[in-house]
Specification:
14 strands; 14-stranded mixed beta sheet; single chain; about 25% strand
């Protein structure tokens, strides 16, 4: 049965079965913690986990986007070192993150670790979040315990409970929810791309008298210009702005200009992104940086520039690679994982009264009519696993269903539903 499957992540309490700690060929611990706490953890790891390799991410790199990129770059370098050894038995990489606050966005690194496992099956990766009050000895004891549960790839400790990230299907009876409204002003980053134009057209058809501000990094081609003119024929007011969303000053200027010209901003669809696919062993720091910037720095810049806006929605377009990893896309998976984690973080800020509008991150599969294309061999490999490109009609239906689900993050899959 061909169709579309939507899943969301739940956190369920699970104890670790006493099975003894496996023996690993190598053991790495990556600390995404503030410098003082990282030093205390390094000392405890040296005492209690002899033979382990400890890496502390540079937390002086700047804001959360810069710190996240530093983590990706340092982990990629470590993975390349591991891969070069061609391990014959399992290697464990455990990433320690805060369980709450802006440090919780480091949970987005799970997509990177899942990609590493797809490229090197001997690699076992875990993201483990801890309360800030957890003493160093407690963190290390829990690292040792979780080494005995390698199947649990995402774990967090909260209120004394061990919670494991699991996937569950979005119920079929979820009511569709349309976030667009008449007279709304919507900013679509990557808006002149294939997916951006699909959603710009959808907004123009669903709501009257809207303003659509589309952004991209390049000048408009004649074909793109014609596409924008067709949107105006649907009744929308359409403007294009050439902006690199990873440039903080440019985003501040963009949002300021929108508020001045149109009186405010109703919603954001963040769809900017680039690909530089290659195996982890061949990844360069420059390529990873290029892939990370539009999604990671982009969403942080958009959020900070609109923190005083009465937004009704912030919708982040990611990729299923962020949830499950994808061969050749370690950096892309990390970037999309950040979007997922940032959606949860921003919703926390909204509940605390520090932001307006719900944030939803959608991890999309390949769209049949989207901007990103893959070669025939990749397409055939996906079809052999029951995966098919998402049609525009099914994609839009999935979007409204995802928007109606009570979740910060929804993964959409397309193909043979039972196999998926």
């Amino acid at each position: 049965r061909a169709g579309t499957l939507l899943v969301k992540q739940d956190w369920r309490e699970e104890e670790i079965e006493e099975r003894g700690e496996p023996i690993y060929a190598q053991r790495w611990v990556v600390l995404c913690e503030e410098p003082d706490r990282a030093r205390a953890l390094e000392d405890e790891i040296a005492r209690s986990l002899p033979g382990s390799r400890c890496v502390a991410v540079d937390m002086t790199a700047g804001g959360i986007a810069a710190r996240y990129e530093a983590a990706v770059q340092q982990i990629l370098a470590g993975l390349q070192e591991i891969f070069e050894t061609r391990p014959r038995s399992d290697v464990l990489v455990q990433v320690v993150t805060p369980a709450s606050g802006d440090g919780a966005v480091f949970a987005g690194l799970s997509g990177l670790l899942r990609t590493a496992r797809l490229e090197q099956p001997k690699l076992i990766g875990q993201i483990i979040g801890f309360d800030a009050a957890e003493p160093a000895a407690g963190v290390v004891a829990k690292l040792r315990e979780n080494a005995g549960a390698p199947q649990d790839e995402e774990v967090r400790y909260a209120g004394g409970e061990r919670l494991v990230g699991k996937w569950s299907e979005v119920p079929a009876d979820v009511n569709d929810e349309i976030p667009w409204r008449d007279g709304g002003v919507y900013l679509l980053t990557g808006g002149a791309g294939g997916l951006g134009l699909i959603f710009a057209k959808e907004i123009a058809e669903q709501a009257k008298d809207t303003v659509l501000v589309l952004t991209g990094r390049s000048e408009l081609t004649e074909a793109k210009q014609a596409a924008l003119e067709s949107l105006q024929q649907l009744g929308a007011r359409v403007v294009y702005r050439r902006v690199d969303v990873s440039d903080r000053a440019a985003v501040l200027e963009l949002v300021s200009g929108i508020k001045e010209q149109f009186g405010g901003l109703t919603g954001i669809v963040h769809g900017a992104g680039v690909l530089r696919d290659s195996f982890i062993m061949n990844k360069t720091a420059a390529d990873a940086s290029a892939v990370i910037a539009p999604k990671v720095a982009g969403v942080v810049n958009l959020d900070e520039a609109t923190r005083d806006c009465a937004l009704e929605c912030m919708i982040l377009f990611g990729s299923a690679s962020g949830a499950f990893g994808n061969v050749g896309q370690a950096d892309y998976a990390a970037a999309n994982g950040f979007l997922d984690a940032y959606a949860s973080y921003r919703n926390e800020l909204m509940r605390a009264g520090r932001r307006r509008g719900r944030t939803l991150s959608i991890d999309w599969p390949l769209w049949q009519d989207g901007g990103m294309q893959v070669d025939a061999a990749v397409l055939q490999a996906q079809r052999s696993r029951g995966i098919a490109p998402l049609t525009t009609a099914n994609g839009l239906a999935a979007f409204y269903r995802a928007n109606g689900a009570a979740a910060s993050r929804v993964v959409v899959m397309s193909g043979e539903v039972e196999r998926l």
